[in-house]
Amino acid sequence: MIFSSVVPLFILSVLVFCPLIHAQQLYEGKATTNCSNTGDSVLGYSCNGLNRTCQAYLTFRSQPPYNTVASISTLLNSDPSQLSAINSVSEAASFDTNKLVLVPVNCSCSGNYSQANTSYVVQAEDSPFLIANNTYQGLSNCQAVQDQNRRQTTDIFAGEKLNIPLRCACPTKNQTGVGIKYLLSYLVTWGDTVSAVSVKFGGDTGRSLEANGLSEQNAVIYPFTTLLIPLENPPSSTQTISPPPPPASPPPPSSPSPNSKKSSDKTWVYVVVGVLGGIALITVLGIIIFFAMFRKNKNRSDPITVPESVEAIEKPVKKKLDEESQDFLESIFSIAQSIKVYSFKELQTATDNFSPSCWISGSVYRGLINGDYAAIKKVNGDVTKEIELLNKINHFNLVRLSGVCFREGNWYLVYDYAAKGPLSDWIYSANNDGKFLNWTQRVQIALDVATGLNYLHNFTSPSHVHKDIKSSNVLLDSNFRAKIANLAKARSAEFALTRHIVGTKGYMAPEYLEHGLVSTKLDVYAFGVVMLEIVSGKEVAALYTQENMNLSDVLNDVLSKEDGQEILRKFIDPSMQGNYPLELTVLVMRLIDSCLNKNPADRPSMDEITESLSRILTTSLNWESSNISGYQFSRSS
Ligand SMILES: *[C@@H]1O[C@H](CO)[C@@H](O)[C@H](O)[C@H]1NC(C)=O
Ligand SMILES: *[C@@H]1O[C@H](CO)[C@@H](O)[C@H](O)[C@H]1NC(C)=O
Ligand SMILES: *[C@@H]1O[C@H](CO)[C@@H](O)[C@H](O)[C@H]1NC(C)=O
Ligand SMILES: *[C@@H]1O[C@H](CO)[C@@H](O)[C@H](O)[C@H]1NC(C)=O
Ligand SMILES: *[C@@H]1O[C@H](CO)[C@@H](O)[C@H](O)[C@H]1NC(C)=O
Ligand SMILES: *[C@@H]1O[C@H](CO)[C@@H](O)[C@H](O)[C@H]1NC(C)=O
Ligand SMILES: *[C@@H]1O[C@H](CO)[C@@H](O)[C@H](O)[C@H]1NC(C)=O
C-alpha cells in the first residue's frame, strides 16, 4: 500500500534459510505436530546409529484406557514383563492417570528412519493426527503414520490396522564413544526444560542439547513432541516419580547462563513493577476473587478505569489472599516441578536482607542464589495467575520464574537475571548513555520477541495475550538475546471483551482502547510499535508528540514521499551511523506498517511475523559478514 512507491527500488534477492546440519538428530519442534508439513526430517529420526537395532526407551503418560501394564504394552508393542519390571510394578498393575511410564522397545532402522513398530486398529472418528498426537501422545506423528501406510488424511477406516512407527533412535558412533548406551524418547509436556528433563533421568544437559540439534541459545521445546535423552544406564522407576516429596529440599533451579556472574559491570535487571493482582475480571476466577474481595473491602475502587499506575489497585487485594495464597503455595509443590519454593530466610541471605545495595528498581532486588544472580520481586497482590502461567510455559524468549516465596501477605517472585537490562535502555538514543545495538542485534531482538509472543499465542493452552508489550518489558540477557518480562497482565485470549483497559499508552491498539476488544492482534500492534522504536531509536511517546498524529501516519509520512529513501535514512536511529542494509529496513518498515493496521484482522499473525523476521535475520547476517570485508552498502553521508 503506502510503500508501493518505495519498495520497487529495493527488490531483494531470494532470502535463503540455512538449516542446522551438525546435529545427531534434529529436534523438529512443532513441525511434527503439523500434518501439512511433510518434509523428510519430520518422518522420523534418521537412521544414523552405530547399530541398526538397539534397546531404546519411550515415555508415556498413563491415560485411560491405556493405564495398565497390559494395555500400554499392547499399544506400544513393548514386552509386558520388561515394562512391569522397569516401572517396579506387577504385570497386573494399573497406573494413576498421568503417571509417567517407562516403555522399553526394540528400535530398528526401517528405510532411512529409526523406529519401533507397533500396530493400531483405527477407531471411529480417528484421524492420523488424533492417533499420533492424542492416542500416542506425540510418540508418533501424523506425517509418519500417513507415509508408512501410504494413506491420505481422509481415507482411514474404523477397524483397519495401521502400522505406527514410534520415534526412537540408536546411539551414534559419537555418543557410543562417550559412554552413551541408550536414547530415551521423552514426551515433552508443559513446563519442561531440556535441563530439567536431562537431570531427571540422570543425563547431561549438554549432551541432550547436542543429541537433538538444540543449543543453549535455542532450547525451545514444545509439548507433544519427543526429546531424545542420551543415557549411560537404563532409566529407572525412581526417576519417574513426580512430584518430588516435599520434605526433601527440591533441586536448585538450573542456572540459565553460567557467565552471568562474570558480567558484574554496571548491569541491570528490570522486571517492571506491574502485577495486577486479583483483578482478573476477564476470567472466571477473577470474577470469583473480585466478589470475595468486594465483600471484604468496601472501599475498593471501581476498576472500570484506565489506571495510570497499577500499584494503586494492587493493595486492597491483600487480605483475602493470605489464606488462599497459603493453600496455593502448598499446591505449588504438586503443580510446579520447575519452580522452587524458597523460605524467606533464603531470600534475605541472597539479598543481604534486602539491602539498598541490592536494590534494582521498584520492588525488585538482585539476589545471589547458589552462585547465580536472580531478580527478586516483592508483590503484595494476587500473583497466582502469573505463577500458574509461568509454570506452564517454558520458552527461551520468556523470562523464567524459578522460584517463589510467600510471607506475611507478600509474594516474592524469583526470576532469572537479565544482565543487560531492559531494551528501552539500549534503543532510546536520547538517553541510552552511549549504549549501542547494531542492526543485526536489533533484528535478532525483534525476532526473539516475536518468537516469545508466538509461543504465548499459539503454544499455550489456552492461548494467551500478553497485553503489555513495550520496550521496557523486553529484557536482554548477557548475549543480547531478548526475553519478554512482566506477564502479570497476560490473559487467556478466550475472553474477548473487557471494560477494564490495562496497558501502556502509545502501545495500545485502537480497537482495544475504543471497544475493549482483546485478541492476540493486540500484541501484534504493540509489537509493531516496539519494532518502530527499535528501528527509529525513538520512544513511541516522542514519535507521537513530535509528529502529532497516529503511528500509521508517521510511517506514511516517512515512506510515501518522493525522496522516500532520504527521509527513511533520517528516520532510522542515527546511532547506527548509516551502517545498516537499507533494503532490509524497508522490509522491516513494511512489516511494522502491517502490524499497525487499524483493522486487527489485517495485521499478520505472530507466526507470519516470526517467519519474515527469521528471513530478514538470515539476510542481515549475510550482509554483516560481507560488510566486514568491505562496505557493500553505502553509508549515508
Ligand atoms: C562426531 O564428532 C566429530 C568430532 O567431534 C564431529 O566432527 C562430527 O560432526 C560428529 N558427528 C555427529 C553426527 O555429531
Ligand atoms: C504447517 O506446515 C505448512 C507447510 O509447511 C505451513 O504452510 C503451515 O503454515 C504450517 N502450519 C502451522 C500452524 O505451523
Ligand atoms: C526385543 O528384542 C529382544 C532380543 O532380540 C527380544 O527378546 C524381545 O522380545 C524383543 N521385544 C519385543 C517387544 O519385541
Ligand atoms: C533414503 O535417503 C536417500 C537420500 O536422501 C534417498 O535417496 C532414498 O530414496 C531414501 N530411502 C528411502 C527408503 O526413503
Ligand atoms: C517396521 O515397519 C516398516 C513399515 O511397515 C517395515 O518396513 C519394517 O520392516 C518394520 N520393522 C520391523 C523391525 O519389523
Ligand atoms: C495433542 O494431544 C494432547 C494429549 O496427548 C492434547 O492435550 C492436545 O490438545 C492435542 N493437541 C491438539 C492440537 O489437539
Ligand atoms: C551394538 O551391537 C554390539 C554387538 O551386538 C553390542 O555389543 C553393542 O552393545 C551395541 N551397541 C549399542 C550402542 O547398542
TrEMBL record:
Record Gene3D superfamilies: LysM domain, Phosphorylase Kinase, domain 1, Transferase(Phosphotransferase) domain 1
Domain of life from the UniProt record: Eukaryota
Cited SMART domains: LysM, S_TKc
Pfam family of the protein (one): Pkinase
Signal peptide: 1-23
Membrane-spanning intervals of the chain: 268-294
PROSITE patterns: LYSM, PROTEIN_KINASE_DOM
Keywords, alphabetical: Membrane, Signal, Transmembrane, Transmembrane helix
Stretches the record annotates as Disordered: 233-263
UniProt keyword Manganese, yes or no: no
Biased composition (Pro residues): 242-256
Protein name: Protein kinase domain-containing protein
Organism the protein comes from: Hevea brasiliensis
Domain LysM, residue spans: 184-229
Domain Protein kinase: 333-617
